[in-house]
Protein: Transmembrane protein
Organism: Paramecium sonneborni
Amino acid sequence: MADQEKNLNPPKDQPDQEQFLLEPGNENGQIFDMEGQQQTQKDVDLNRLNEDQKNKNQEDPKLMRRDLIKKKKKNEQKERLISAQRLKRLLKRKPIDKIRLAYQAYFFIVSIVVLTLSILSFRDQTVYQVDYDQFINNVKSYVVDDIKFTYTNKDCQTQFGSEYSSFYQYNWPGSMIGCDCSKGFNFSTLTEYNIDAFFSESFMLGRICSQDLLSKNCTTVNEQQPKIFNSWNDGSFGRPFVLCARRRIGIDLQSNSSNCQLQNKTTCGTGDNIFCVPQDISCPITEIGFTSNSNYQNLKSKNNINTGDIFDLGAGFYFYFIKNTSNLPLVEFQVSEGDKICRRNQDQNISPNRIDYPLMLKGRKQCENTDSLFQMIHSIDEEQFYLSNNVIYLSEKLPYFNIDTKYNWSIHTKTYIPWASQCRGELFDNVLQEGATLHQVYTALRVQLGVTIAYFIVIGLIFNIVGTMTACNFAWSCMAASPESQYNYVFLLEIGFKILLQIAEIVVIIVSFAIINEKRKLIKQVNDNECVNDPVSNFLFTNLESDLTKFAWSYNLANLVIFAFTLILDLIIIKHSINQGHHHGAKKLHEKGEHQELDIGSRGELGNQQDIKSDFKIQAKTELQQIPL
């Protein structure tokens, strides 16, 4: 009783009753809230941790946002995984789309065929710009109306004036550096099958000898600079001489005698070879040669520079030239080993069964075909040729460089290419003009080949593999979130790229058609009218027409037909896709069974998402409870 009264009397240090009621109770280590509900010490700690976490999140909003982003990404990954698994289950029961599979096989074959046609169209060109340039350079060459000679080492311009230049120039290409470790090998035993291996192993082309190699009796072969040969002799150790030709411009090969008079020009030539020259120059030289007859063609007694001339080069060896014969003017002069000039004139001939020196910077080969319009006027052996040009020392400077008297070198001359009179005038001008732009054909073929290669890689390989896998019900995880649209995405993307590349190639082919057709008609007109009759020119125009018609034109036409057919096939496949509603090799989701499965999967995913969220909350609470005070 006393205790009860004691408890009824509040202690003096206690606050008043109203204040006491506002504070939470604390009795025997227990805490009460304002409503009298009891809390444990553990709950108090949890509340404190929550408040601390809340304050921490308020202090670091970036950390909170980062955590939210991580949680969101984790949930999205789980959702995609569930969608992909559901998609795989769905596709296992779907049949393979055989129509789409056949479509992919067809385009793989088409891409190979188109690529093959483009390669053949580009590869099978037998005539190139360099061949046409050779023709143009000939018909645009300067004529020669005077020739002089000199024994001195001065060049022609210094000796006779700026209008004169060397009668011919042979460009010796020079040799590369090497290290000779052959030790006196017998070069004559080499053949064309083992010479390259011998020089690669024994000469170490392109490098000097190291100290170690020098100690093994190897020697460095120094390079020799390119040289110009323009001297000649009589072939019997006679005094070398240089022929200097005066070249003129202004020759009109398209004219006849009446046109020359109307133009107030001098008429030269006879028959079909009539042409005009300006009045201030004489008719050009049409024949040259060497002779031992000092009174050849009675030139000395005529003593008329407008008719021709002859002069003594020493030891009874004479050079002569004659003007205004029935031949066309001489315009090209060339020196070569052997007695022929290659059909492609820039190629250097070599004697049969002879191997060119491997250290040369530019090798020579025996001509497979020759230019019969070139006529040989004189020949000397190889030793005389090198002696006359003062380079006989090369046999000492270059190991195994053989200067042999059994091989001959010869001078050749070539006239203008004969051009029929009925083809002169506008046709002749058009031939020259079209030849200057022939490179456009090869540029167009190269561009077309590049587009075709891109078409083969993108459509024939990449999209064909993707499309085939899609038609075989392969599940692309990147599109698992929308399985009903996967197949159409892949298909439409393939169709878009294919049509884009086909349009690009069609444009290139149409442009090529315009270029090729214009030149093809012109070249055909030249051949039909028999404008040229020399073998080289006939080869040029005949094969050029064949190239433009058979290869470029026909192959491009085949590609156009293929692309037109594939565009029609594209429309059929698109219509098939719309009507059938195929999705990744499966029917549309409006089918009842697929709707049920997808709906169940969707609900299952939603339930899984809710379970994931609940598990996440429980896991967070458990981790907080395990944190020690």
